[in-house]
Amino acid sequence: MEERQVELCRVEDALSILVGKWKPIILLHLLHEGTHRFNELKRKLPGITQKMLTKQLRELEAEDIVERTVFPQVPPKVEYSISEYGQTLEPILEAMHEWGTNHTLRKRQIEQNKDEQ
Amino acid sequence: MEERQVELCRVEDALSILVGKWKPIILLHLLHEGTHRFNELKRKLPGITQKMLTKQLRELEAEDIVERTVFPQVPPKVEYSISEYGQTLEPILEAMHEWGTNHTLRKRQIEQNKDEQ
DNA sequence: CGGTATCCTAGTGGATACTG
DNA sequence: CAGTATCCACTAGGATACCG
What we know:
Two copies of one chain form a homodimer.
Chain A: H1 2-9, H2 11-18, H3 23-33, E1 36-37, H4 38-44, H5 50-62, E2 66-71, E3 77-82, H6 90-116
Chain A binds a DNA duplex through helix 4 and helix 5.
Keywords (chains A, B): DNA-binding, Transcription, Transcription regulation
Protein name (chains A, B): Helix-turn-helix domain-containing protein
InterPro entries (chains A, B): HTH_HxlR (IPR002577), WH-like_DNA-bd_sf (IPR036388), WH_DNA-bd_sf (IPR036390)
């Protein structure tokens, strides 16, 4: 029984890594479009500040989800990519993406039904 | 291209519903063990306060994930269960649970390797 | 180019006490 | 039993400015 309790909590591990306003979308970009430079990623995330992008990437790096490669040159060049371990998150991300898409459709339908009445 | 951008963001819908310190574990209890009364659920969530349990349940109810049934009697009786729509979250929850379990194992192995050196 | 540093605000979550 | 009502600490996230 207690074992069950402990088991249930494991969900939070995945959640804690994925939570963050920009983390899921960062991961999807890296998964689907491969390695990015810092500013390249920034351009794909309209509205994000440098500070936030740095912070989210650092946290993902600390969890071994994202790999950071620094090229020692001037001007600086830093590349980010999904780690092998990070790729194991894909099923979760895809499941969330699919659910989210249906969720949006559902909301629209509910809106429409409201309008028709 | 822009369509792609919009698509990517759908992940956040799922995330926003699942995020909350107690939500995933509440949902798993309701999914696996069925309908619960308020205090029954509270007993299964060591450490949660009444306020937090109420808040999380209300938020899940607002999103149509959880159903709340009030029995008009004294003393009060309120039952919570997963809605039909809430059940569609199961694949995500299971994917997160599985990942989290492997994640814990992986961490332990890394710890062991550290100790052995 | 790829960051830090500083300051700020809103919201999340907890402790505690009270209630129909 | 199943909640509210307060008050409070902490953090996430944003705006802005500066740096090697």
